[in-house]
Amino acid sequence: MQGFDFIFAIAILIISVIAHEVSHGYAADSLGDPTARLAGRLSLNPIKHLDLVGSFIVPVMTFFLGGFIFGWAKPVPYNPYNVRWGKWGGALVALAGPSMNLLVALIFGLTLRFGFAANVFSPMAVPIISLIVFINILLAVFNLIPIPPLDGSKVLFALLPYYLHKVQVFFETYWVFIILSFILFFWQSVVPVVFWLFRLIAGVGF
Known about the structure:
Low-confidence stretches: none
Order of helices and strands: HHHHHHHHH
Number of strands: 0
Distance between the termini: 17 Å
Mean pLDDT: 87
């Protein structure tokens, strides 16, 4: 059963992170930057997006060592100097990825909520749909953390006034240490938010 869960979890993660990255590309393209389109990255073809470490090694390690699954795909390239509206355009591009994950979570979560209440799902379908919802909420919440290179940092830097530019420089210089410290010491405070959002959307526990 664990192998069955693992295969579905990896497949769901890969599809979810690809949707996340492609959304960045489409947002950038709509705001004037064709970099992702010209690079052939506005595609749902997994081969164009998979990353050996983020799409395979890390998900396997987190699943078997931590009991959860997490990973990423290759970032979709974009040139911020081509995007309209300056830093605000960059923030919109950044928000496109988590927004797509939240949209997927909402669609499948509400389907689960009302389908479960109407008893239309087989026992096999409920855990799969639940996993889709959970993984997409996890991706959205994690990526909205305002630490580089996560999407939330682009939003934070767009909101920062110029006189706080040194904060951005500090974050971009020491982001590896900051994000590792966050994961080690503060991630447990974020996990309850993920479960709360799951219950809020799906109406059931995970």
